[in-house]
Amino acid sequence: MKGPLFYSKILLFGEYGIIKDSKGLSIPYNFFKGALKTDGNESESAIRSNKNLRAFKGYLEKLAVEDPELVRFDINAMTSDISKGMYFDSSIPQGYGVGSSGALVAAIYDKYAHDKITVLENLTREKLLKLKRIFARMESFFHGKSSGLDPLNSYLSLPILINSQDNIESTSIPSQNTEGKGAVFLLDSGMTGETAPMVQIFMEKMKNEGFRSMLKDQFIKHTDACVEDFVNGNVKSLFGNLKQLSHVVLDHFKPMIPAKFHELWKRGIDTNEYYLKLCGSGGGGYILGFTEDFGKAQKALKDYNLEVVYNF
């Protein structure tokens, strides 16, 4: 038995900002994927995943009691499948900011939720918000606090435009220019990052009034402008705003950038060969890069593994 595939995601813009109502743009990334399986696999990772699913099932049982109006699951079927060794077989790296827990949440909802909202129906804003609420509660098992966006992206496999916390829509983005020199790419930092401690640092910083006004006047302003530019295909303007955004992140989100990348980050801004930004909560995992000339960026970042996500 093998369930449908659920893909990883990339939050192109909006990390941290969406907590405070900035715009955001999240796209599916089909390079990594996962599926629920019951095929007698007894590898260490399958056994570990099965144990995690058992704990997750306990959490979902409680959730259904606490909020029966929100979501209910076929717990008996889930219990039976888990006892048969069900696990989540995934190529999505954990702690890399590309939504490993989001894909698992989407797979469990798809398989076991009663009265589920499906991709095939007319996805009104109300339905999208309800899905996001359900997924936020489900995914908080893994992170302590979740926006629900990662599972939503994985479940729908569509780009999601976040206008504000209560205003989200599926959107289309300009088709890729496969001949283009410009690119969005992932840079592998070679280390994993943990979401919860990074969010904790952010929440501590939010107690400082100076940080709060920087977030509103600079970070959110440039994030919103980048989202608008990207969705509308304004590449020239996008790179101007990206440079500003990369600068603000380097100045004010240093703890979220692994120390050995501070210099590399600054070099991109100084040379305009590439601009780096956080991919997810930071602290490790992938770093997101944007360049108008991928060849130049590759040369400048030759010591690192780069993966192209989108071509301009």
Q: Helical element count?
A: 10
State the end-to-end distance: 40 Å
General shape = globular
Could you say what the CATH topology of the largest domain is called? Ribosomal Protein S5, domain 2
Strand fraction equals: 15-25%
Protein name: Mevalonate kinase
Domain GHMP kinase N-terminal: 86-150
InterPro entries: GHMP_kinase_C_sf, GHMP_kinase_N_dom, Ribosomal_Su5_D2-typ_SF, Ribsml_uS5_D2-typ_fold_subgr
GO molecular function, one term: kinase activity
Could you characterize the architecture of this molecule?
This protein is of the alpha+beta class. The protein has 2 domains: 6-170, Ribosomal Protein S5, domain 2 (2-Layer Sandwich); 183-311, 2-Layer Sandwich (Alpha-Beta Plaits). Helices cover 46% and strands 18% of the residues. The chain has 10 helices and 9 strands. It has helices at residues 44-66, 75-83, 100-112, 125-143, 149-156, 195-205, 209-232, 235-252, 262-271, 294-300, and strands spanning 6-13, 24-37, 87-90, 160-164, 167-170, 183-188, 275-278, 286-291, 306-311. Strands 1, 2, 3, 4 and 5 form a 5-stranded antiparallel beta sheet that branches. It has a 4-stranded antiparallel beta sheet with strand order 7-8-6-9. α8 (235-252) packs antiparallel against α9 (262-271). The radius of gyration is 20 Å and the shape is globular. The model has no long low-confidence stretch (mean pLDDT 93).
Q: How is this structure best summarized?
A:
Pfam families: GHMP_kinases_N (PF00288). The chain is α+β, with helices and mostly antiparallel strands and 312 residues long. Helix content is 46%, strand content 18%.
